[in-house]
């Protein structure tokens, strides 16, 4: 099994049991949230070995998350426990019309935001095949930003393949200019960049896939995959480009985690030595499965479920 490191902030997610305004809900169901959590769970369900790199608070939510990661087969040896700062929390309302749920989070000053470059220097990267980074950790704090840079630098120095999903969270950043500058710097340290078409407009100044891909490829990545929702995705390398069509959802239930599901498909394909176009096709399929399932990661399929879906469903 390939060894993957995912760097980010897992949060305790409290999802409303019934539709309505969060302030009116009395009962919630606890689970985990976090873009990197979703990718880690997806990869383990497809038979890969994932390690989560983060910092948790020494509190009930932190202990719950560590146990939940382990129960999902995710390695926790790269997790440190902070005796002072607390684990982040996210709330999420329940929708019934396929619209994006309201999901405020409470993570300012969280334990994960206090991770440092020194912790990255202490990591043993022997045997690691791939490092997956998103644009969320560098938005949390200056120390987490430095840790993100250091992780990507160390991975590249060690010859480890690096994937980067910008995963824009404007509310976490000081301002849009800083967000754009930092994320574009990080994109230049990756082997593969995975922006959405709307993210390209913010980061590259264009929603034109070819122009956006040229913008990112000029920074040094080997490949850029631009997600375009149900329409599929565009794959660009120095050798050329291709459009990989998406799958049509029967009914959109919950859009959260679709991009993370896409990353699962692409990364699993890389780890298994598949042609990149096939990994993109997998990503399109998992993204479609995700939006048809309630929850951040409940719909992420096993290998058998993914194969069955791709065999019986046609692309849009």
**What is the CATH topology descriptor?**
UDP-N-acetylmuramoyl-L-alanine:D-glutamate ligase
Please give the radius of gyration in angstroms: 18 Å
Fourth-level CATH superfamily: Ribokinase
Level-1 CATH class name: Alpha Beta
CATH architecture: 3-Layer(aba) Sandwich
Report the uncertain regions. Answer: none
Strand percentage lies at 15-25%
Helical fraction equals: 25-40%
Keywords: ATP-binding, Kinase, Nucleotide-binding, Transferase
Protein name: PfkB family carbohydrate kinase
Organism: Faecalibaculum rodentium
Pfam family, one: PfkB
Write the layout of secondary structure elements.
Layout: E1 3-7, E2 11-19, E3 28-33, H1 35-45, E4 49-57, H2 60-71, E5 79-82, E6 89-94, E7 105-106, H3 117-121, E8 130-134, H4 137-140, H5 142-157, E9 161-165, H6 176-187, E10 192-193, H7 197-203, H8 209-217, E11 223-227, E12 233-237, E13 240-244, H9 258-271, H10 276-291, H11 303-312
Helix pairs in contact: 1-9, 9-10
